[in-house]
What does this fold into?
Amino acid sequence: MAQWKIGSIGPRMVEKARAMTSIVDSISFRDGKRLGAIALDDVSGLIAQPGTFVWLGLHEPDDALLRKIQEAFGLHDLAIEDAHHAHQRPKIESYSDSLFIVLKTAQLEAGQVVYGETHLFVGTNFLVTVRHGASSSYAQVLQRFEDGTRRHSMGPGLALYAVLDFVADHYQPVVAQFEKDFDAIETDIFRDRFDRLVIERLYALKRDLLELRNAALPLAEISSELMRLHEDLIPKALRAYFRDIQDHVSRLVGLIDGMRDMLTTAMQVNLALVANNQNEVVKRLAGWGAILAIPTVVFSLYGMNFQWMPELHWKAGYPMVVAATALACFLVYRRLRRAAWV
It folds into this structure.
């Protein structure tokens, strides 16, 4: 098998090779019938034909490829700039003949939550998805859309729903993992001793819940705006699907908010238990201090230099003082015992 070196091929072939690695999905339909994969150079002519729908999937494309995509689909400069530079907030922006949507994706990798971004360009006859960072491939979404009865005939609206629903479904396993993490540390939360590690784990979990909430909540707002303001892309027959996304995201955010409240309450209970335990310790120390104060005062008197000391001239003086001191300590101990101070 021949091995090609970069220096042995032209710049245009290098650019084409990079574009091929960034374009992960490409398919087209006309009048509900699948046309198959398409070349990037054929896109502009294809979408100009009535009844044609093109779905193009990209993964971390470079600026040169994005410019070719812009030229082929007639996309806005600002949208292309945002798609090239990741770390955008979830949003939906409307341009003259297309929409630009940013979604925050989340998934589990080796038990850890990783986030990515998906940028969507939506027009009346095309859908372009641009994935950045940790994000699952939309190949299975495309396959379901392609296999669905009369789905491809509904154009970009249903394709857009399929992508949004796929992103929303991937939030659920993350929430389930957070619930497992909370259950794992719940026993340690209610101990009456301070554990710095437990508090750090609780804080990290609460921070992760907030990050997931900030990723999921805009998806419901985007779905709402699509239904209200973009009837040309989302016909009446599709609104029920986007309401379903809203419902899923609302329930998900409700679970997240409930878990965050539980974490806050658990942290407060843990601190209250620790403070109560410290109060008990202080009470016991004060009680024993009161008991020990009696012999301390009595015997310190006998360390003073004065002439008339009972035990010097009275044989029973010393045992009587010790007995009186012990009796006084016992009476104080009994009283404190009844008050639960010792």
Notes: Residues 1-149 form a domain with the Beta Polymerase; domain 2 fold (CATH 3.30.460.20).
